[in-house]
Amino acid sequence: MEAIIERTSEEDFKEDLEEEEEEEEEEEEEEEEEEEEKKKKKKKKKKKKKKKKKKKKKKKKKKKKKKKKKKKKKKKKKKKKKKKKKKKKKKKKKKKKKKKKKKKKKKKKKKKKKKKKKKKKKKKKKKKKKKKKRIKKTTLTSHPRLLAKQAGNL
Description:
- By secondary structure, this protein is an all-alpha fold.
- The chain is built from two helices and no strands.
- It has helices spanning 2-142, 144-151.
- The termini are far apart.
- Residues 1-154 are annotated as: Disordered.
């Protein structure tokens, strides 16, 4: 009887030991699982953070690019405006030059006309003088009334 009790208590002890070992193993497994889950969560969090950072960086880059584009556009606009202004100035200058040239041409024409008129007048005067001289010459010999007038008979 004593042997049976000893045997059952030994069996119970063995069973208890086995159960304890099993429980320990289960606990260990659970702990490992928990740790793994924690790691996974951490990794996920890290990934999320990285993603967020990347997104932020991308947004910043986009903003910078947009700003740069805007600046470039503004610069281009300014350049265009400057070019337009320069063109306008050039056009104005050209117009002024043309006007000046026209004025000069007009003046020259006027001067030429005046000179021509003067020359014509001079020629006319000369012609008149010549005619007068010629008439005087011919009248001296051919007109008896004039001859008489010269002689003082009239």
